[in-house]
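Sample intake — Myotubularin phosphatase domain-containing protein
Collected from: Mucochytrium quahogii
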Amino acid sequence: GEHGPGPKGKVLGNSPPKGAPPPPKEQAPPPKEPSAPPKAADVEQVGVVAAVNGEAVKEQADPEQVTCKVANVTYMSPTHDVLLGTLVVTNYRLRFLVDGDKEKHGWLYFDEGIFDVPLGVIEKVSRVSKGQMGNAGLQSLVIYIHCKDFRRIQLRFVTVADASKVYNLVRMSAFPVSDGQGMKWLFAFEYGRVKVKSRDGIGGWAAYNAMDEWVRQGIFVNKDASSRNWRVSQINNRYDFCPSYPALLVVPINTSDEDLRAVGSFRSKNRIPAFTYYHAVNGGCIWRCSQPKVGLGNVCRADEQMWSNIRVLSGSDHARIVDCRPYKSAIANKAKGMGYEDEARYTNTSISFQNIQNIHVARTSMEKLESVISSPPSGSNTSGSSSAWSNWLACVEGTGWLNHIRVTLNASITTARFVATNAFSVLVHCSDGWDRTSQVCALAQILLDPFFRTIHGFKVLVEKDWLSFGYKMSERTGHGAEGGSDERSPCFLQFIDCIWQLLNQFPTMFEYNEEFLMCILESLYSCKFGTFFCDNERERVQHALKDRTISLWDHIDQNVDTFKNIYYSVTQEEIKKKTPLLPHPSVVCRQVTLWDRYYLRYAASPSLNEHAFQYLRKPSYRLTIPNRDTVLREAYLNEKRKVHQLEQKIISLRHSLTEKTFETTQKT
């Protein structure tokens, strides 16, 4: 479902909506008039209003419009349960309206008797006919929809004409990029056209300003970039030096642009060491880049000198290079002319390999997890036995997904400790420096700086370390493109999962809640907002996203109370002091668990939802008690008071011990 209120509009019968791609050359036969059209009230729930009594309603400037409506559609679950209803297709989503009483049907997303599938969430759509494809599939009454959020949907129609029309319409609307129409046909541009004209939802694009963030961190004294150690380089102001980097880069004051060009030639895709975080408490800092072109013996004096400048100017006696890759992978890259830094050539610097697997391994692991989730445990439909669930949980662990989360968290905590505890200058990279590097840099900053654990700070972090530093958001997510690309990967999903693990273990340290994280992921796929479009800052400027689409952050701001964590207890003073969250890696990794509310919300079997909480875990904040939020809040405050009392007692005992020691010394 969509968070917050959805748009409401009107539609002219079956006329093509504004913002929809051109129709395909071959149109399927028009479907017969539905024998039982949905009630007007039901259609209004979609956010649009269809024709009333056969007469078209006057069109209004609304981004979402109905393009197709088919009655007597059967939803078929993987467990062969069926539901009869009406399918409504708009230029933004599919909505299935269940016939009859809107009672609970066992699936979480049918609790309201409906489900929504934004077109951007659809990864694949196919025609199936008793396991056959090809020409036989074209005569099928069934459409199979595979979604990016782990949903697998089968819809059966009464006529081939109905199935053909919906199939063609969904393919046309969901995959404009694959069909060569371009991303301009994604719903966000139509949604933005209406909203931008009304001047509604402009502020979100101003959530992040690089200079403001540098001043906040303390690397510059003011917006004039006053500093004795650092400067803002304009070498990439036209994005021609490094197309995947932001326009402005912070570099050592004694490293010239000519030096940067030499360093760029030594780093993959010109992604030089670039500043991302300064820990003002002790001078430790985080820089990010891509792997060096070491090969079988290449060196670059300018690269070595730049890193030496960074280490000295930040006041670090020693430094660390955090290579996110497994050591064997880094070695293998030498055969391709790449590799990793030679410690002997980088003064007082050592390398730490973090063993995070590449995007292909992560994607395979996610596919395995999806397969396990979509297949209910043996015997769960009847008995829900603990043995069946133990086997199912073993299968979840066997996908490797939870281990990827553990390894990523371990690398991030290690990086944060290098900065906060050792005051090191830390250089983070993987291969190209935009996947695993973004994960580790961003998570380390969440641990180091409580600002990034606020709602506004999260916006800044995503804009800075994911979007401006060139994480290939569109390519990895597949916006407007049909599934199958070898370049897709769940890196950003893993990042959000890692945050949820921290939120789950330290629920008072984050201003945002679980609902906030789920909204971020839903918006990543839905294509309603322009925030996650394109692969780098340069492309976002070229497509004028700020002028043509709405930012997700506007939606967050308009519904901010929904996303606030009621257990948040960090004070403004703690934020100013940048009090870090530095748990021991083993403590965090041992408590990593499956994010049930996200991964199991569209689970195949009703019993999966019924038994999931029983055998996965029983979080205290989900206990069924009256006024649970109030009760838990009071319990938390009571425990916090006890901790404070114990701290005061410790201080008192230390004071008494000091006095007695002093008296003893005086007597002797």
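Post-analysis note: The chain has three domains: 9-180, 205-616, 623-667.
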